[in-house]
Amino acid sequence: MRDAQVTIIGAGLSGIMAARTLRLNGVEDVQLIDKGKSVGGRLATRRIEGGKADHGAQFFTVRSQELQQYVEDWREKGWIKHWFGDPYPRYTSVDGMNTLAKRLAEDLDPELNTRITSIKESIGGFQLTSEEGNTCTTGALIITCPLPQTVTLLEESRVSFDPEKFNQIKNVSVSPAFVGLFEVTGETTIPSSGHVDKGLPEGVERMVDHYKKGISDKRIISIYMDSEWSETHFEQDEEEVTRLIKDLGKEFIPFESIRSEQLKRWRYAQSAQVISQPFLNLHDALPLFIAGDTFLYEEDETARTRFESAFRSGIAAGEHVSGLVKQL
Ligand SMILES: Cc1cc2nc3c(=O)[nH]c(=O)nc-3n(C[C@H](O)[C@H](O)[C@H](O)COP(=O)(O)OP(=O)(O)OC[C@H]3O[C@@H](n4cnc5c(N)ncnc54)[C@H](O)[C@@H]3O)c2cc1C
């Protein structure tokens, strides 16, 4: 960690877009911090036995002109492809969603494996402390963690924020999700696109065959469980959860040819509520902003947190902070 003009906690899509926007607007001294060993957050891809599987976002849709412009550029560069869906296309990264995040974060020099555990007001901004006890100061701060993590961080900090606004973020609940990852050698009955989200047993939200999706040489399947099922089974033993998922997926997946199995447990997958503004200014006097996928533009009628909401929230927070920094 180092002292910086602007620091962003969370290098998921919204944090990456905030950092890129600040840089594009000429703010050079930007620090991007994440507790993970890679950027991307919920744009997550796992390498399994020489194959690959997405186990966070599988695809994204485009409703805004803002994202559409980027999509055209990313397609030209060969980073993404139209996966399925007509007339509403689902786009996906050609080599795993995490690679798209890594490409977008190139040149941002993120500080990884660094969990911020407290924030304190200091002269001209904030002082951040990491789990290892390291500290740094920053003039402005943008926090883009899933909201329950942001709430915990703020509760463990010494920052005087607007209580009404704080309650707004405290009242958002974020559902968990289980994703089972299975390598099999036999053919699945998942359609040729590699994606199915209809006609599935209760509790299963979607299944993806990454070989058919075109991102893996090995047949690795992700089975996504819905929020209700994941909530019900969240505290259960991993082996038991994996067994239950396999049982629900057996009509589609030839488990007799299984080579490996893994389970991803997302404590915070999808917000049950949204906040209808692109980011939140939490402090009356100091530049402390909260952004992320839960923040939607007022005109966004989907009421769904997703890739596009994270993308737009990060840009909006980045634009706003660029303006503030330039006024100083
Ligand atoms: C299972 C699953 C399936 C999904 N499917 C889809 C889909 O198909 N289409 C779609 O559009 N969206 C989907 N989504 C949603 C999409 O992935 C998210 O909306 C988006 O990626 C969120 O980006 P973000 O930057 O707001 O948050 P995140 O990606 O969560 O980034 C926040 C970052 O903050 C970091 N962090 C947290 N606390 C700290 C701390 N104290 N210190 C430092 N760093 C910290 C985390 O490590 C994380 O990297 C899915 C999500 C999940 C989990």
Automatic annotation (TrEMBL):
Descriptive protein name: FAD-dependent oxidoreductase
Lineage: superkingdom: Bacteria
Database matches in InterPro entries: Amino_oxidase, FAD/NAD-bd_sf
Gene3D superfamilies: 3.90.660.10, FAD/NAD(P)-binding domain
Chain segments annotated as coiled-coil in the UniProt record: none
SUPFAM superfamilies from the UniProt entry: FAD/NAD(P)-binding domain (SSF51905)
Domain Amine oxidase residues, every copy: 83-317
